[in-house]
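Fill in residues.
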C-alpha cells in the first residue's frame, strides 16, 4: 500500500467555490485495480471504475483524472491500440464516452488531465464508467509509469456531474506507490574539503537506471582509502531493503588527498572523493537549497524531502523552496517546523524559506532564505490560495519584495525556472548575494554575466530546483527537465547557520552541475590591496583591511596593473578544460594536455537553448559521419534520458535526437587508428564539415542561432589521466570598472563547476 499521500490541506490548489452539494455521496466514488507498489518506468495496466453518485451524470457531463505536472509517465493516447499508453473507456449502459488528454488540461499542480465526457446520453446512480490505462487487449504493451519514486502517486478523480464545467474532486482518490528498480550503479559520497581531525561522513547507495536509490541492493563492500581514516571499517554489509547507508564520525589526522575505493569482491564498484585534508580557516560543505515537494508543484511530502536530502543525497545544507502562491499558511508553518526539527549544527544545516514567484515582467523568480524560523512570507500573489485574509502582505513585484525584506536577516538568490529573474528590473545587493546559474532546468551563465555591466557583484550558486523528490541527487528523468540538478559548495568556518550565512554574504562558494569537485581560486597581489568586508557600493561604511591575497567572492581594490591568479582543481573525473574569465570574456583556456597528447578520440558537443523563457528547450536531431574512418566505440556525455536516441549506426556514424536547455550533451567517438577523410555533422540546426586531420585541440564551432546554441568539435587524448590541476597565470587588471575574475571547469564526463568571481577594481 502507498506509504504517504500529500495532505490536501497543505496543498496550494483551488477548486470550484460553487458546486452542486456538500454530501460526497452525490458525486459517486472510484476504485482502482490493481493497487500496491510498482517499479518506476515499468509498464502496467490499471482499471479505474467510477461509480455514479446520487446526482447522476448528465449529457456532456464528465469525469477528469488528473496527474501532477512533474510526472514523466507516458501520455495517454487513443489512436494507436498497439502503442504504449493506449487508453480506452466504456460505460456500463453503453452510453457514448469521448476521451481527451492535455498536458495542461487542468490547473496547477494537476496540469495533466484525461477527460472522459458523456456524449448523447446520461448515467444514473450506480452506473459506471471504466477507464483502462494501458489497455493491452489490442496489442499495447501498457502504460509507462514515471521514472522517479513516489510513495503516493494519485489518480486524482474530479467530477462535473451537472455539465457546468466545474470539476469537483472526489473525497477519496486511489493511489499507488512507485518504487525503485534493480540497482545498476553504486555511489559513494564524501565531502571535498576538511581540516585535519574534522569529522565527516561517507554515504553509500545503489541507484537504478533512473537515479532512484534502490532497496534491492545488498552485499559486502570493502573500503580501501588512500589515507588512514579514523573510524572507517575495512568492510561493511549493505543490507537488503535499505536505500542508503551512512558511516559517520570519520576523520583524517594529517593533510593529504583522500579517495576511497569501494570494492565488491575484486571489482571496484565506486570511488568516493576527492577529499582534500587541509589546515586552514574553511571547510567545504555541500548543499542543494532549492527544491519543492508535493505540497506545491513537486511530489512526495516535505518531510520526505528533508529525509532524502540528509540521508540519501548526503547533503550538509538544505532548504525547501515552494512557489509562494501555493504556500498556504498551514504549509508555511510546517516548513518552519521541519527546518527547526532537522537543523543540527555540525551535521545538517537547514534554512526556512520560499520561492518568490513573480512573473518576469515584475522581477521574476527569487529564492528567499531566513536565518531563523518564524518570519513572515511576502508572496508575489495569492494565485492558488483561497484564504485572502493576508492579501495585504503580498509583494507584487521584486522591488516591493526587497522593500519588505528590509531589516530581515535573510539572503536572496535570483534564478531561472519557469519564470526567469530580471535582475535589471530589481536587484538589492544587500540581500541578493548570488545568481543560480545551473539547475535541473538547465545552465544559465547569462544570469550572472548580465549583472556585470550593471555593477552587480554576485556569487555563483547551483541547485536542483528539483520537483521529483530527490534534492541533492536530482536526475531529469524522461520529461522536459534536461539537466542533472546542481550543487553548491560553501567554504565556511563552521557548519552552522551563522557559518553558511557568513559564507553567502562574502560569496565564498562555488557551484557545480551536480558533481562534488574541489575548486580553489585565489588572486595574489604584488603590492598591498584593500579587501572590503562588504560591497562598498551597497555598504559605504563597510570595514576594510590591507591584504596580499584574496579568495573567490572577495571584493578588492588594487593599484597593481596585473594579478597572479592561482587555480587548484581536484575532480572525480579527468579534467577536460578550465576556462579563465574576466567578466564575460574568456581570457585563457587551460588544459592538462597539449597537442602532442591528442589521439583518435573526437568529441562532438551540442548545446544552448531557444530563448530565455519557459519553452527554452532545444531539440537536436542529427548525425555525425566519419568518412574513411571506423568507430571502435562511443561514450555518451550528459545523456541523462536512456530512452532518447544517441547511438552508433554502422561502422562510421552516430545518430541522435536529444534535448538541451542551456546545458550540453554529446559523445566521444573512439576511432580505430586511421585518420580517415572528413567529419560531416548534419543537424536540424545546421551542418558542420571538417577534414578529420584538421580537428585538433581547439574547438571547431558551428553557431546555430537561438540562445548560445552551437555545435563544437575537437580532439582529445585517447586516455586522459589528469584529475588534478594547479595553475598560476598573470591576469591584467583593466583600469575601468570591475574585473570579475572567475573560472569554469569542465570534466570529461560532462560535469562543470563555476567559481564565484573575485571582483577586482582599481
Amino acid at each position: 500500500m502507498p506509504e504517504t499521500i500529500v495532505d490536501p490541506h497543505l496543498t496550494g490548489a483551488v477548486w470550484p467555490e460553487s458546486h452542486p452539494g456538500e454530501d460526497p455521496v452525490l458525486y459517486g466514488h472510484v476504485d482502482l485495480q490493481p493497487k500496491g507498489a510498482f517499479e518506476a518506468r515499468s509498464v502496467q495496466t490499471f482499471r479505474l471504475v467510477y461509480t455514479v453518485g446520487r446526482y447522476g451524470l448528465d449529457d456532456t457531463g464528465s469525469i477528469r483524472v488528473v496527474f501532477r505536472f512533474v510526472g514523466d509517465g507516458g501520455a495517454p493516447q487513443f489512436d494507436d491500440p498497439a502503442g504504449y499508453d493506449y487508453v480506452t473507456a466504456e460505460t456500463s449502459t453503453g452510453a457514448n464516452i469521448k476521451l481527451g488528454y492535455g498536458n495542461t488540461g487542468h490547473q496547477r499542480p494537476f496540469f495533466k488531465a484525461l477527460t472522459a465526457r458523456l456524449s448523447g446520453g446520461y448515467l444514473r446512480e450506480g452506473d459506471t464508467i471504466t477507464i483502462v490505462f494501458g489497455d493491452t487487449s489490442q496489442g499495447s504493451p501498457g502504460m509507462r509509469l514515471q521514472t522517479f519514486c513516489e510513495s503516493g502517486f494519485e489518480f486524482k478523480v474530479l467530477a462535473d456531474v451537472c455539465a457546468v464545467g466545474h470539476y469537483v474532486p472526489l473525497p477519496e482518490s486511489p493511489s499507488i506507490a512507485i518504487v525503485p528498480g534493480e540497482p545498476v550503479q553504486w555511489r559513494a559520497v564524501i565531502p571535498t574539503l576538511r581540516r585535519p581531525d574534522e569529522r565527516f561522513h561517507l554515504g553509500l547507495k545503489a541507484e537504478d537506471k533512473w537515479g532512484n536509490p534502490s532497496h534491492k541492493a545488498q552485499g559486502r563492500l570493502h573500503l580501501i582509502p588512500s589515507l588512514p581514516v579514523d573510524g572507517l571499517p575495512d568492510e561493511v554489509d549493505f543490507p537488503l531493503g535499505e536505500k542508503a547507508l551512512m558511516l559517520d564520525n570519520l576523520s583524517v589526522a594529517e593533510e593529504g588527498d583522500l579517495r576511497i575505493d569501494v570494492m565488491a569482491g575484486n571489482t571496484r564498484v565506486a570511488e568516493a572523493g576527492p577529499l582534500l585534508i587541509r589546515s586552514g580557516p574553511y571547510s567545504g560543505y555541500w548543499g542543494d537549497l532549492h527544491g519543492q515537494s508535493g505540497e506545491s508543484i513537486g511530489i512526495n511530502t516535505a518531510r520526505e524531502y528533508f529525509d532524502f536530502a540528509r540521508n540519501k543525497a548526503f547533503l550538509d545544507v538544505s532548504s525547501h523552496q515552494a512557489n509562494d502562491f501555493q504556500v498556504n499558511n498551514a504549509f508555511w508553518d510546517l516548513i518552519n517546523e521541519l527546518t527547526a526539527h532537522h537543523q543540527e549544527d555540525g551535521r545538517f544545516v537547514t534554512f526556512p524559506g520560499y520561492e518568490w514567484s513573480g512573473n518576469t515582467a515584475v522581477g521574476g523568480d527569487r529564492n528567499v532564505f531566513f536565518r531563523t524560523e518564524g518570519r513572515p512570507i511576502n508572496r508575489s500573489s495569492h494565485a492558488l490560495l483561497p484564504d485572502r485574509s493576508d492579501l495585504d502582505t503580498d509583494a507584487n513585484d521584486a522591488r516591493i519584495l526587497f522593500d519588505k525584506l528590509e531589516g530581515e536577516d535573510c539572503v536572496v538568490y535570483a534564478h531561472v525556472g519557469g519564470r526567469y529573474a530580471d535582475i535589471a528590473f530589481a536587484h538589492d545587493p544587500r540581500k541578493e548575494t548570488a545568481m543560480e546559474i545551473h539547475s535541473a532546468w538547465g545552465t544559465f551563465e547569462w544570469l550572472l554575466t548580465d549583472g556585470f555591466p550593471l555593477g552587480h557583484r554576485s556569487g555563483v550558486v547551483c541547485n536542483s530546483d528539483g520537483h521529483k523528490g530527490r534534492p541533492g541527487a536530482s536526475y531529469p528523468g524522461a520529461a522536459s527537465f534536461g539537466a542533472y540538478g546542481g550543487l553548491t559548495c560553501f567554504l565556511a568556518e563552521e557548519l552552522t547557520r551563522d557559518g553558511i550565512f557568513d559564507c553567502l554574504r562574502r560569496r565564498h562558494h562555488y557551484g557545480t552541475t551536480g558533481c562534488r569537485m574541489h575548486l580553489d581560486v585565489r588572486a595574489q597581489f604584488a603590492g598591498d590591496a584593500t579587501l572590503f568586508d562588504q560591497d562598498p557600493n551597497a555598504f559605504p561604511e563597510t570595514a576594510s583591511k590591507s591584504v596580499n591575497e584574496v579568495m573567490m567572492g572577495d571584493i578588492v581594490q588594487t593599484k597593481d596593473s596585473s594579478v597572479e591568479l592561482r587555480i587548484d582543481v581536484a575532480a572525480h573525473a579527468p579534467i577536460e578544460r578550465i576556462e579563465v574569465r574576466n567578466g564575460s570574456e574568456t581570457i585563457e583556456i587551460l588544459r592538462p594536455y597539449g597537442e602532442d597528447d591528442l589521439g583518435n578520440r573526437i568529441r562532438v558537443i551540442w548545446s544552448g537553448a531557444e530563448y530565455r523563457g519557459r519553452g527554452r528547450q532545444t531539440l537536436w536531431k542529427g548525425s555525425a559521419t566519419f568518412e574513411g574512418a571506423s568507430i571502435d566505440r562511443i561514450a555518451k556525455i550528459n545523456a541523462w534520458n536512456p530512452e532518447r536516441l544517441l547511438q552508433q549506426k554502422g561502422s562510421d556514424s552516430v545518430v541522435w535526437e536529444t534535448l538541451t536547455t542551456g546545458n550540453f550533451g554529446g559523445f566521444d567517438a573512439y576511432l580505430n587508428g586511421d585518420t580517415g577523410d572528413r567529419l560531416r555533422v548534419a543537424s536540424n540546426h545546421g551542418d558542420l564539415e571538417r577534414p578529420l586531420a584538421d580537428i585538433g585541440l581547439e574547438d571547431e564551432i558551428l553557431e546555430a542561432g537561438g540562445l548560445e546554441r552551437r555545435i563544437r568539435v575537437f580532439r582529445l587524448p585517447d586516455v586522459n589521466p589528469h584529475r588534478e590541476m594547479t595553475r598560476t597565470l598573470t591576469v591584467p587588471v583593466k583600469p575601468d570598472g570591475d574585473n570579475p575574475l572567475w573560472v569554469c571547469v569542465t570534466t570529461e564526463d560532462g560535469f562543470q563547476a563555476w567559481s564565484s568571481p573575485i571582483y577586482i577594481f582599481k
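Residues 329-342 form the longest helix (14 residues).
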